[in-house]
Structures
1.
Amino acid sequence: MSETPHTRDFAREEIQAIYRVIAERRDMRHFTDRPVDTDVLKRLLAAAHQAPSVGYMQPWRFIRVCDSTKRAALKQAVEAERQRTAEALGERGDAFMRLKVEGLDQCAEVFIVALADGRERHVFGRRTMPEMDLASAACAIQNLWLAARAEGLGMGWVSMFEPAAIAHLFDMPRDARPIAILCLGHVPAFYDRPMLAEAGWADRVALDSLIGVDAWPTDHSGLSGPDSSDTAEQSWWDIPSK
Ligand SMILES: Cc1cc2nc3c(=O)[nH]c(=O)nc-3n(C[C@H](O)[C@H](O)[C@H](O)COP(=O)(O)O)c2cc1C
């Protein structure tokens, strides 16, 4: 595609900044107690609210947790689920219990993200895949995450909880559904790599092994089919798209 003034809205450095923010965003578990500026908070929530959403339904709701008793209750709920997860993991349970899975004690701000009530009214793009509401809210959280990183703030997404317990704690409508506890704040330093990679829990999968051409990805070349010998040296980006 040729580059026109209309398609080339961003300066080279701005484009690089976007990729840098994406690469340097980390799921954070360690925070300092320095407060977060209110204007920054407003910008982050506004960024979240600009996310795409199925049928423009904007299913996200945010609760800022200011009450220390409620924060303590959240911590308890996560701890209970951490124990249950360890049991479910069987032989990896001990290794799991050594991981730090939340930063609720230290972070300056805690937000709950929930799916709104009344979602069944929204059929556009969800008739066969109702979970697209969750996908939309995840886009909002990712916006917030990236904007926070750009502002020099860390964020951690905690999903280790029983949704009903959190819904009850914040008196949510019957069909609302909490999907995230977000720990947000200044950090001592950003991790260079995902903490789970540092801890040896998992590694990033090779991108090429996740991309197929006209078929499900195969593990080695990203090309599939019984006879890929002709194209064994090719990767998905070498093949012209019609
Ligand atoms: C939907 C979702 C839920 C997550 N829930 C948790 C969680 O409960 N506890 C935790 O320690 N990390 C959680 N994470 C963070 C992941 O562990 C983290 O994103 C992954 O290890 C990659 O690290 P990175 O985000 O720094 O690239 C969650 C991430 C996502 C996207």
2.
Amino acid sequence: MPTFPGPDDDCHLGFGQVFRNLGVTLYLSLMQDPLKKYDVIIAGSGIYGTSMASILAKSGLKVLIIERGKHPRFALGEALLPQSAIWPFIIGERFGIPEIGHLSHADRIVDNITPSCGLKHSIGFAHHTEGVPLEASKLHQLVPPHLPFYSESHLYREEVDQFLLDAAIQYGADYVEETPITNVHIGASGVMVSCPLNEYHGEYYVDASGRGSKLVEQQGYRIGAPEAMTHSRTLFAHVEGLQPFDHLIASPSQGRQWHEGTFHHVFDGGWMWVIPFDNFARSSSRKASIGLMLDPRKHPENSDLSPEEEFRAFISRFPDIERHLEGIEVTMPFKRTGRLQYASRQSVGDRHFTAPGTFGFVDPLYSNGLIHTFESVYFGARHLLSAFGKEEGPVAPGDFSTAAFARMELLHRTQWKHSDATISKAYASMAEFSSWNAWTQYWLAQILFGDLWLQRACFRYFEDGNVAHFDAFLDEIRPGEKAPFAQDKESLLEDLGALLEIRGNGVVDTGEAMLARLAQESWLPRHVYDWGASESRHVDFSRDEVVGALLGWGFEASPDHLRQGLFDFKLPATA
Ligand SMILES: Cc1cc2nc3c(=O)[nH]c(=O)nc-3n(C[C@H](O)[C@H](O)[C@H](O)COP(=O)(O)OP(=O)(O)OC[C@H]3O[C@@H](n4cnc5c(N)ncnc54)[C@H](O)[C@@H]3O)c2cc1C
């Protein structure tokens, strides 16, 4: 039976750490044998490709990862949420890969991977009006419950990705780098992947190479994003010298320092992420990640300026954002992109599927990217391991057909649609504070219950050690879709969305109407956090009395469907 591990329960010494300490670059100039037939060829050595490779290689499959670039390399996807911290724990336990499990806790990251990451105790939002100093009444701070088996972090991806790659190699995966994929042939009896110097042969192809995927281009899967409701572009960089926002403003009832979490400046038509890596006694970093997300229909690109000049010109319109970033020094040149949204017609075909980040992307608000990545790694690994006869699972051995992997298609579509629905409404709500306030309260409700759905599976696993509690997620289109609160959440989303759509009709005050709609919800524990009250802006679920009130309500006083279908676990003694 599993124990309820805390941060000190270090299951494994990180291989990458050991090899780097020895000064050995394991895979330097490694050229794989082109005559070898692989079971699975994986395009891309980001978190998706290397996590999948570790799982498959550990079970004895012959795996090749092909990477266009070279590690260590910069990557985005730095802020975790509870769900993207819990998933690595689940994957680590389910497939016996502690290296992935290390991502589930800030202390495990420092102990095993790198001291260059930050931690995330909270998520903070400050709503700004152009030209006006920030008001303390326009801040939100949401602190999730703190449980011993996970904590959220700010991942310094250069080092995290290198570590995960080293782990995949140690589990037996072959790796080639600086090797762009130039052609992918999917045949009836196997796949052939061409690169400038070699061709590689395999049974199955997993494409985790992202937006520029060769396979997606060749198959004609890419559709841009004509139906995306979200519309955004970005300007981002890594910096040093970032001052904690706490020096500028405090709000009386906030539970944590702003700098201890991911901070978001929000305004009409956009938002900015602030992700410190230095915010933790155990971190040796001096860096932070900052990035502006702008709706180009409201804030078109100014290509007369360099990306950094445009960034600085933009923030000078908001006095307290400018003050927050006073004194920063850029450690990598600012990057500027065009519209970020993209999608695909298809994610699965015979002998191949694409990862969520290859299938499409919406916008990084609410850090869905790594949640989707890990959900898909779990689903994809269970499909592949059963298709290769390594485990019983959703696919019959030897079946690599489109139909056998159809759930992956549904998963990736549902993830994308969910992101687009919530993030486009978030942008709409940013136009003024009261609708943003109501929207943020909605977001808190749905994320809190989504987190509980994953925590419930972990608690049940701690009770009896049965990994079937995790495999139950495979019966849902996407984890949470069959949860007892799913319908409540969906109706609320629809109603709030409808109110946002009629904004400005002169009849309804959108923000007030959204708050009133939230206040009607009987499935939300109002005594814990007064959903719908305009002053409900900070909540700290890391405080024993607050989480105790939530659980007490859940076990005894919540509506029947929640008590029977969500709060049906026993709390481990150590929780
Ligand atoms: C602006 C922005 C901010 C984000 N912030 C967050 C966040 O805070 N939190 C979060 O959870 N998510 C965030 N995301 C999403 C996150 O970045 C992705 O979900 C995650 O990185 C996907 O991982 P991956 O392994 O699928 O892809 P990647 O990490 O992109 O890896 C793809 C790999 O494929 C390689 N490759 C590409 N083409 C080829 C080729 N032809 N041949 C071989 N190799 C190739 C690339 O070099 C790369 O190493 C953000 C995304 C963006 C755009």
